[in-house]
Structure formats: structure tokens, C-alpha cells
Amino acid sequence: MTVRDEDLGFLLAKGPRRRRDGTTMVCVYSVVTLIVPARLVISGVSMSITPATVVGLFLGLVWFCSQLVTTLNAAKGRNVARTALFVFIVTQLATYGYATRNYLPEDELNSADRTLVTILGVTLAALAVVDGVRGVARVELVAKCVLVATTAVAMIGILQFLLNLDLTQYMVIPGLHPVTSDGFVLERAAFRRPAGTTGHPIEFGVVCAVALPIAAHFAFTAQDKGESARRWWICLGIVATGAMVSLSRSAILGLALASLVLLIGWPGKRRIRAFFVGLAFLVLMRFMVPGLVGTLYGLFAEIGTDTSISGRTDDYATSSVYIAQHPLLGRGLGTYLPNKYGPLDNQYLGTLVQNGFIGLFALIAIFVLGAYAALRARTMTRDPHIRDLGLTLVASISVLALGAATFDLLAFSMATGLAFLLCGLAGALLRSTRAEQVAAGIDPPTVRVVLTRAMRLKMGSLQK
């Protein structure tokens, strides 16, 4: 049985029928990652494993099998995002082996096992994205799935904020059970802080901020093509509202950085339009939710006296001891338990403690090389649509890279899955753009490739 793109609803552009492929599985993975509440894990398993991790591991198995044959239309060969993901996996395995070569307390060993499985799930899924999503249209399809799923998450969070209605309590899925009995609706300055389906309001705000550049891309490009953009403007408004009602500094800083990246790369007319759209949104939020804008301003105006900020900086003295003890590979993946040693509200610092300098450089490479892949795809073509998509991915990845400095990103499943998914999507865009350039004769193979092919032909003739 074939599955048409149209069967996925308005997410898909109209076009010819297509069978299930790697993109279809990646879309399922993105929806499972974002929609299934973070507190739900698989029943009957000794460690807390989310459904998204299982789907990610399955994608990794499919990716591995596709690399062994030539009949599944999976891409092969080097790719800068692919290389970054490989290096990251190797560093995680090295850290795990280094930590478990000697005795570990049972709680730390269990945490290390669960963390390794989770990391393998998101990394292998990202590799499947790089090699399994073929074509710019399919890259956009995954981006649309991410946007629509995030819009649903934001809508659930907005209902939590406005009505104190937590729909996640009614999302009962057979085979899953909650690891906590309560929801994730906190309070700040007399406002409720929603979390949607995520694990914390900070993660909720960052996830919404990541989706904002994607929504802006589809809204503006639809207008430029003369198509209806109403649905994308609605998505843009919902995710922007979700980021604001999260009452999170990380989300607001992420929005600011994403806006800066987009404004630098956008043409002048779009900058003007975006400025007025943003101004109108702020005015609307000021009247619709009195006190919200002022509260957000106070988060930064009173940053010097905020106890949450001082608590984050207090972690530095404690963590420096562990860094000095294990500088290269860290003390062990997932072995620094917050309830045992205290929280580390900075993913780069946490990675330095648990994975050492080698692991830290590998994590930074995920963000840097992912953004580079998207920028490289942007510079390889003059197609304004592809160029804007590359810029969009850079902006979204930048939000996560900044968020990793303001909270422990890898401790939250949805933000982690989204970070690796976007890195893989950037690699897929670069591979697809390169393939289109070669097919059109605009960007022929490099001299090295031509010489390699000539040598193979010569060796084949000599063997005959």
C-alpha cells in the first residue's frame, strides 16, 4: 500500500504520489518527539525510555541497513553534518567506556546507561535525516512537520497559561506511564509558567523559539509566491506567544538571536515587514495579557538581584573540581546527578564535567557544523527559496546553541531531539543542494572526484 503526501494533510505540498521513504519515518519521529508528553516513558522497561528514543533507535537501524545496500535510495558519502554526528557518537562511547571501566555507584551507572541509550537514539536519528531525506522539497516537509507539531505544543502551553487547563493529563497512551504524577505548570510573578508537552517551561520556551524562524520562512515565502500564507502566520503567532508566556530568559534571548540572524540575511523589504509585524505583535500582547511584557522586561532589568542567576554561577566552583580530575573525557556520561551533586544549569559546563574537553568540542561541533552546512547550502545556490531555508536553519540552530549556555539542554528530551534533528536537516539540505547543482551542471564534481573515477576505470580495464 502506498501513502500519498496528501494523506498528511496541509503539511504537504501538492505533487505526485510518493511511497514511504526516509522522510516519512523522520516526520513520524519528529511528531512523536514533540507531541508525546515528556513525562511518559515506556512501561515494562527498567530504565526510563521515551517513545521518541525507541523510534530514533529504529531509524538508526534502518539507516545502518540502508548503508549496506544500494536499492533503498539512501545517500552515502561524506557530509560535514554527518561527520560531526559520527565524532559525537565516538566521544560519547569513549566517555562511557572510561567511566564504567571502574566501579560506579548503582544510581550513577543506571543514569549512565539510560543517557547513553538516549544519546544514541537522537544521534542515529540525525544520521538517518542526513542520508534519508532526499531533495529540498523533502527537507521542507520535515520542517513543516516540526513546525506544526511545535504549534500544537505551544497551543497546549497557551491553554495551560490562560485557563490552567493541562491537556497532557488526558493524553493517556497504552504502553506508557508517567514518571511523575504532576504536570509542569509553574509560577512566576503571579503568572502561570506553562510547559506544554515538554519537561519544563524553559524547554517549552526554547522549543517555541526554535520554531519561530521556520514559521517565518513559510509565511514570507508563501507571500512571495502569491500563495495563501494564513496558516503559516497563525503558526507564527502561536509559537511566538508560546515563547513569551513561558516567562523564560532563555526563550527571549533565543528569539532575539534568531531575529538578529534572520534580519542580517533577509532582503531589505522583508526586514521592514518583519519589523512592523513584530511591533504589532508586542502591542497586541501588551493589551491581551496585561503585565506580561513588563514581567519579561523585569527578568532582565532585575537580573543582578535574581537568585536563579546567582544559583547558576554558584555551580562553577563545584564543577571546577571535577573538571580538574577528569579533563579529557570527563567523570562519566550521565553520572553527575543533580539531586546528588547539585544542578548544572549550563549544558556546556555540564558536558565539560561529564564528557571532558573532548566531549565539549564534539557538542560545539554539532551546532557549529550544523549551521555551517546550512550556510554552505545557502551559498551554493541563487535560488532565493533554498537560500532562505538555509538561513532559517541557521537561526533555529542558533537558538539551541544559545540555550545550551542558559540551561542543561541535553537533560530535556525534546530540546535534545530537536537539536540533533535540525543538525541532520542542515546536512540533508546541503546534500540535496549539492546534488541539484551537479545534476544541473552548475557545480560539476571536483577534480579529486574526477581523478578518482578515472583511476577506477583504469584499474578495471587493467584487471580485464
From TrEMBL:
The chain crosses the membrane at residues 22-42, 48-69, 81-99, 111-129, 141-163, 202-222, 229-245, 251-268, 275-300, 352-374, 386-404, 410-430. Residues 237-364 form the O-antigen ligase-related domain. GO terms for molecular function: ligase activity. GO terms for cellular component: membrane. The keyword Ion transport does not apply. It is found in: Membrane. Its main location: membrane. InterPro entries: O-antigen_ligase-rel_domated, WaaL-like. Keywords: Ligase, Membrane, Transmembrane, Transmembrane helix. It is a multi-pass membrane protein. This is O-Antigen ligase.
